[in-house]
Design brief:
Elements lengths: L2 H18 L1 E2 L24 E7 L2 E7 L17 E7 L11 H16 L2 H8 L2 E6 H4 L10 E8 L7 E4 L2 E10 L2 H24 L46
Parallel strand pairs: 4-8
Antiparallel strand pairs: 1-2, 2-3, 3-4, 5-6, 6-8, 7-8
Length: about 250
C-alpha cells in the first residue's frame, strides 16, 4: 500500500461519511488494538469507529475495513466493506457503551474474520448470521441458545449501499438485529426467507433502523423452504450460512 492510496482512501471515506451526516471529530478506538489480543487483523491494522449524527439519529460506522491492505501495492479497498447501524433513540451516555456500538463492533470483527462479507452481500443482497451474545454483549436480543441474529446489507431508503473509493467500489452495509423467531425462520428458509424478511423490514418502514424491543415481523403461516434434496435442485448452491465462519472473537 502506498501512502498516497491510504491518504486518498481516508479522504474519500471522510467525505462520504460527511455526506451522510455530521461526523464527530473523535473516533472510537481501543487503547490496545484488538488484533494484538487475538482478534482479527484489519487491512492496515487500524481499527476505528465513527459516530455520525443524522438529524436526531445516531449512526455508528466502522472506519478501517476498507483501508488498502498494507502489503499490497496495487489499488484496493481492503475487505471492501464498512459496517454501520442507526437508531432514532436518544443516546444520553457514551456511544461506546450502547447496543448500537456493540452491534457494529461485533459485525465488523466478523467481517474482518471472514474477509468475504462484501462478496456475500453482493451475491445475495442481504446475508444473515448469528453472533454469540456472551461475546458481543447483546444479551437482550439472544435466543435460547445464546445467539443474536443479524441481517447485513439491509437497504437504506436514502443512503447508497455502494460507494466508489480510489481503490474501487465498497459496500456500505447496514446491519439489523433479528428477533429470535426471525433468526429461526431464515436459518430454515435460507435465501427465500432472507429475501422475504428483508422485504418485510422495508415494507414496515423499519429498514435498517435499530429499535430495541421491536415486535417480530413474522406472521403464521410463513412460506416454508423447498424441501427437495439440495443435491437434486437445478443450479444448486450451498447456502452461505452453512459455510460461514461464526467463530468467537
Amino acid at each position: 500500500m502506498t501512502e498516497e492510496m491510504f491518504d486518498a482512501t481516508c479522504a474519500a471515506r471522510d467525505a462520504f461519511y460527511a455526506s451522510v451526516g455530521h461526523v464527530e471529530p473523535d473516533v472510537i478506538a481501543h487503547a490496545i488494538n484488538p488484533a494484538f489480543m487475538g482478534g482479527p487483523m484489519w487491512p492496515a491494522l487500524r481499527q476505528a469507529f465513527s459516530v455520525i449524527r443524522r438529524g436526531s439519529n445516531t449512526i455508528v460506522a466502522s472506519n478501517g475495513l476498507s483501508d488498502p491492505f498494507d502489503d499490497i501495492d496495487e489499488p484496493n479497498t481492503g475487505f471492501g466493506i464498512e459496517i454501520y447501524a442507526e437508531t432514532q433513540d436518544l443516546i444520553g451516555g457514551e456511544v461506546s457503551q450502547t447496543d448500537l456500538f456493540q452491534l457494529v463492533y461485533a459485525t465488523a470483527q466478523q467481517a474482518a474474520c471472514s474477509g468475504r462479507m462484501a462478496e456475500f452481500v453482493r451475491m445475495h443482497g442481504v446475508i444473515t448470521m448469528g453472533l454469540y451474545a456472551d461475546d458481543c454483549g447483546l444479551h437482550a436480543y439472544q435466543n435460547e441458545a445464546g445467539a443474536v441474529g443479524i441481517m447485513i446489507g439491509v437497504e437504506h431508503p436514502q443512503i447508497s449501499k455502494t460507494v466508489e473509493f480510489p481503490g474501487g467500489e465498497i459496500i456500505f452495509a447496514a446491519v439489523q438485529i433479528l428477533t429470535p423467531d426471525e433468526l429461526a425462520y431464515v436459518v430454515e428458509a435460507r435465501a427465500e426467507g432472507r429475501q422475504i424478511l428483508h422485504g418485510k423490514l422495508k415494507a414496515a418502514g423499519i429498514h435498517h433502523m435499530l429499535t430495541p424491543g421491536r415486535a417480530s415481523l413474522l406472521a403464521s403461516p410463513m412460506p416454508r423452504p423447498d424441501t427437495t434434496p439440495e443435491s437434486t435442485r437445478r443450479d444448486s448452491k450451498k447456502p452461505w450460512w452453512k459455510v460461514w465462519s461464526t467463530g468467537r472473537r
